[in-house]
Amino acid sequence: MHNPMQFELLGRVDDILNIGGIKVSAGRLEDRVMEDARIADAGVAYVVDDRGRGAVVLALVPPEGIDIGPLTQEAVKRMALGATPVQVVAVPAIPRTETGKVRRNALSDTVHQSLKASVTTNA
């Protein structure tokens, strides 16, 4: 039972990614990617695989009828992360709140499942 005069800090969700010791705003990365009018929507997530390895993943929603292949290299360049590897996956939609912010946990789950599916189909 909690004392009514105390509160418990459970943490917070934000859009800051720690990439190689450098703090990067996922929102700013998404803004850079969205400068390309051919991309319908984009979201950035940091996903940890089953082996505990983390990766930056760019989730793209390509416009209908557009192949994501040619968009991926340009989108990764726009992120300007240098030598940091970025995985790119196509998703049907980026999960967002009512105010339009990316729901990071839901995006991570979507990306993780998409990556698992691609490993299974490519095996």
The total count of helices amounts to 3
Unreliable segments (pLDDT under 50, ≥5 consecutive)?
Answer: none
Strand proportion: 15-25%
Total number of beta strands: 5
* Terminal residue distance: 50 Å
CATH homolog superfamily: ANL, C-terminal domain
What is the chain-wise order of helices and strands?
A: EEHEEHEH
Strand order of the largest sheet: 3-4-5
Average pLDDT level: 82
Shape: globular
Number of domains: 1
Structural class: alpha+beta
Briefly note the CATH topology name. Answer: GMP Synthetase, Chain A, domain 3
Q: Report the major sheet.
A: 3 strands, mixed
- Give the CATH architecture: 2-Layer Sandwich
**Name of the level-1 CATH class:** Alpha Beta
Name the helicity range.
25-40%
What does this structure look like?
The protein is α+β, with helices and mostly antiparallel strands. It has one domain (16-122): ANL, C-terminal domain (GMP Synthetase, Chain A, domain 3, 2-Layer Sandwich), CATH 3.30.300. 31% of the residues lie in helices and 24% in strands. The protein has three helices and five strands. The chain has helices spanning 26-33, 69-79, 104-122, and strands at residues 16-19, 22-25, 41-48, 54-61, 86-90. Strands 3-4-5 form a three-stranded mixed beta sheet. The chain has a two-stranded antiparallel sheet with strand order 1-2. α1 (26-33) packs across α2. The radius of gyration is 16 Å and the shape is globular. The termini are far apart. The relative contact order is 0.17. The model has no long low-confidence stretch (mean pLDDT 82).
